[in-house]
Write a structure and sequence with these properties.
Two copies of one chain form a homodimer. Chain A has twelve helices and eleven strands. Chain A has about 400 residues and is α/β, with parallel strands linked by helices. In chain A, strands 3-2-1-4-5-10-11 form a seven-stranded mixed sheet, sandwiched between helices.
Chain lengths: ~400, ~400
C-alpha cells in the first residue's frame, strides 16, 4: 500500500496547531512503516498545486521547537473546493503515494477531509484520512473542547484582567472599557474573559452571539453597573447579532467575505463605544486584540500545548492502525484535577457543524456566564493566572473641610 | 520640618509604574527620617479631596509584589488643575505635614509637580517635590527613555511578530494586516514594532506621527510590497496626522476629549482597512491591542521593571537629601552591553514638553525606522524575544501538470 504521509494545516492560525504537527511528525518518525513525510504548503491549496515539502529534511530541533512556535508553520488557507478540485486532490495524493492524509483544522476542514476520504474510498485508493481538531472558536461538535481554545482563552482572561485593572486605575477619565474578542458563530472566546474574574477584576458584562443583542438592554446594564461602581468593563463578541439575526456591525462590502461566504466581522467595539457615548454621555474606549489573541505563545496554556501535541500523535497512530474518515476528539475523564483522554468520531459528525455555548453556561440576563462555564473552562487555560498585588487602602482621617 | 511622605500616580497606567511605587516605599521604609507614608487615591484628585491611604499599614509582601503588578495600584487620573485647585493642594499637603511629595507621571504631571514645588517655595513651606518619570509614550525630554516604554515596546514587538506570523500563514485569504498602536504625539510605541524584525517577520511598513500621512504614498507602499511578497503587515500610530496637521481619524465628538483638551484617538486601523479595500481591492484586517498593550505583565521588560524600581528609589533618596523641583532621569552610560544610571533635571525642562522620534530614527521614505532606532530601543525590551522555529521547506519535485 502507499506508505507516504501528507500533513496539512487549515483555517485560522492558533498558538498550538504547530504542536499538533510536531506530534504527528514525531509519531511518524517513530513508526517504521511511514516512508516519506510530506507537508502541504498552505493547506489544501498546496495539495491542489502540488506544493509539497519534505519534512524528513528538516532539522529535528526545528521540528521539536514547533511545539513553542505559534501560527501555522506550513501555512494555512481558507479555500472553497468544487468537484474539479476534489478530483485533482485525489490525483495528487495518488501520484505521491500518500497512504496517510492528516488534516488539522476546524469544521470546514473536517468537511474537506471527509470528502477526500469518501472519494478515496469510491476510487478504491488505499488511504487513511484523519482529522486533527484545531480551532480557537472551540465550536467543533463531540470533542469536549478544541486545541487552540485553551490558549486563546488564557490570552483573553489575562487581557481582560489587565484591561480591567487599567480601567480601575483610570476610571475617573476613561469610565467604560469594551473588549472585542473573536468568535463568528459561537461565544466561547468571549466567555473566556470571565476567567479573569475574582478580586473585583475582569469584565462586569459579557455578551455572546448565542443571545440576540438588544441595545436598550445593554445600555440599561451598563448604566446600572456604572451607577454602582463608577466604571464598567464589557466583553463582546465580534459576531454579535441583533434580534433579526443580522450581525450587529458587519461590513457588507464585497471584499469582506471569505471564500466560504462568511462575512468578515469586527466593528462591534467601535459601534458600542459610539452607542455608550451618545446615549449615556459617558466616555468609552475599546480594545480589539484581533489576530494577536489567537497566536500568543506568551499566553499559551500548558494544557492546550500538551493536548494539541497528543491529538497529533494519536491521529498518526490511529491512521497507522487503519482508521480513516475520523477526527480525534478530547474526552474529559476527570474534572478536579482535570484529566483527559482521546477518542475518535466520524468526520461526518463534525463537518460543517457548529457547537454553540449551551444555555447552561449563559446567565438568564444574557449578560454573563454561569459558574458551570467557569468550571468547564478553568482547567483548559493551564496554570492559574499569576497573582497581582492588591492594596487594602487604609484611609487616613480627613482634617480639612470638603473641597467643593 | 514636616516629615511625612505622599506618593501619587498619574496619567495612563503602565506595566511598571507600581514598581516605581515599590521603589519609593521600600526606600522610605529604610530611611529613619520619614514618619508617615501616604498614598493619594487617583493621583492629584486624591490630594484635592484628601483621599489618602496609609501605606505603612499595607502587608510588606503586598507592597513588594507591586513590582509584578501592572496598572496603577493607587489609582490614577487625568485632571486639569486651576488656581483654586493648587491652593487647595498646598493646604492639604500642609495639613498632613507632607515634607516629601513624589509624583509619578508624564509631561502633564511634571507640570503639576513643578507648580506645586513653586507654590510651596512661594509659601515658604518646607517641602521637597520630585517627579518620577512614567509614560509608555516615551516622550519626556532629557531622560534617555521613560519607565513604561520598554514594556509596551516588548508587548508590541511580540504582538507584531505574532501577528506577522499569522499573516504569513493565512495570507492567501487575509493579505493585509494593520496593527494600530498607542501614541498621541510621538511614534515611539509604533516604532517598537520594528523590534520584531528578523527572519522575515515583523512589520513591512511603519508610519509615525512625526511625518504627515499621505494616503496615496501609503497605498503605493502597500501595493509595492504586496506585489513582491503577496502580503503586507503595517504598523500605524493612532495619532497619525495628515498634511494639514489634522488627525487622520479622530473622533470630534465632545465626549472624546480629555480634560487637557487632548482628542481621544483611535479609528486609524479601521480607516486604513477601508482605504486598502476600496482602493487596492485587497482584503485587510486590523488588530488594536488598545490599553492591553500598556499593562501587560506577561510581556514586561526586565530592564524596564528594574529601572522603574530604581527611579522610584532614587526619587525618594534625592528628596530626603533635600533636592526639589526635579525629575529623575535615566542616563545611558553604555550601549553594548546596555548600562544606565540616574540623574536629575529641573521639572520645568520636562513639563508639558514632548520629545518626538528624531529624524535619525526614521527612514527617508517615512515608512520604517532606521538601524539607529533599533540600536536605541533593543536593550530596553530586556531579554531577546523567545525564538520561533522556522521550517526550511524543502520542496519535493512535482510530477503532474499544473492545475489550471
Amino acid at each position: 500500500m502507499p506508505d507516504n504521509l501528507l500533513v496539512a494545516q487549515s483555517g485560522g492560525p492558533t498558538a498550538v496547531i504547530n504542536s499538533s504537527i510536531c506530534g504527528i511528525v514525531t509519531e511518524a518518525l517513530q513508526r517504521g512503516k511511514i516512508r516519506s513525510i510530506y507537508g502541504a504548503i498552505n493547506g489544501i491549496l498546496g495539495v491542489l498545486t502540488e506544493d509539497l515539502v519534505d519534512l524528513r529534511k528538516e532539522d529535528p530541533d526545528v521540528l521539536w521547537n514547533l511545539r513553542r512556535t505559534p501560527s501555522a508553520a506550513l501555512g494555512s488557507c481558507r479555500y472553497k473546493l468544487g468537484e474539479r478540485e476534489y478530483t485533482r486532490i485525489l490525483e495528487v495524493l495518488a501520484a505521491h503515494e500518500i497512504g496517510y492524509f492528516l488534516y488539522a483544522g476546524g469544521n470546514d476542514s473536517m468537511d474537506t477531509a471527509h470528502k477526500v476520504a469518501k472519494l478515496a474510498a469510491e476510487k478504491r485508493l488505499d488511504m487513511r484520512v484523519i482529522g486533527v481538531p484545531k480551532t480557537v472558536d472551540n465550536d467543533l461538535m463531540v470533542t469536549d473542547h478544541c486545541p487552540g481554545y485553551g490558549s486563546v482563552a488564557r490570552f483573553n482572561a489575562i487581557a481582560a484582567r489587565d484591561s480591567s485593572l487599567d480601567t480601575e486605575a483610570i476610571y475617573t477619565s476613561d469610565t467604560i472599557k469594551i473588549i472585542e474578542t473573536m468568535g463568528r458563530d459561537a461565544g466561547w472566546i468571549t466567555a473566556s474573559t470571565a476567567l479573569a474574574s475574582g478580586n473585583g477584576l475582569g469584565p462586569n458584562l459579557i455578551y455572546l452571539p448565542e443571545r440576540p443583542f438588544i441595545p436598550d438592554q445593554f445600555l440599561a446594564d451598563v448604566k446600572t453597573i456604572n451607577e454602582r461602581t463608577g466604571r464598567v468593563v464589557i466583553a463582546v463578541c465580534e459576531g454579535l447579532k441583533d434580534e433579526s439575526g443580522e450581525f450587529v456591525k458587519a461590513s457588507h462590502k464585497g471584499l469582506d467575505t471569505d471564500s466560504f461566504g462568511h462575512a468578515q466581522l469586527g466593528g462591534v467595539g467601535d459601534y458600542l463605544v459610539s452607542l455608550v457615548s451618545e446615549k449615556l454621555k459617558i466616555k468609552a474606549r475599546f480594545d480589539k486584540p484581533g489576530t494577536i489573541q489567537r497566536v500568543s505563545m506568551q499566553c499559551a496554556s500548558t494544557v492546550d500545548l500538551e493536548e494539541a501535541y497528543r491529538v497529533g500523535q494519536i491521529a498518526m497512530s490511529k491512521a497507522a492502525e487503519g482508521e480513516s474518515d475520523k477526527m480525534v476528539t478530547i474526552i474529559r475523564t476527570h474534572s478536579n484535577p482535570y484529566e483527559s483522554e482521546t477518542g475518535l468520531v466520524d468526520l461526518i459528525e463534525v463537518a460543517l457543524k457548529t457547537r454553540k455555548v449551551p444555555d447552561a453556561y449563559i446567565n438568564k440576563e444574557a449578560n454573563f456566564v454561569t459558574q458551570e462555564f467557569l468550571d468547564y473552562a478553568s482547567p483548559l487555560i493551564g496554570e492559574p493566572l499569576p497573582p497581582y498585588a492588591r492594596l487594602k487602602k487604609d484611609r487616613i482621617e480627613k482634617v480639612l473641610p470638603n473641597f467643593v
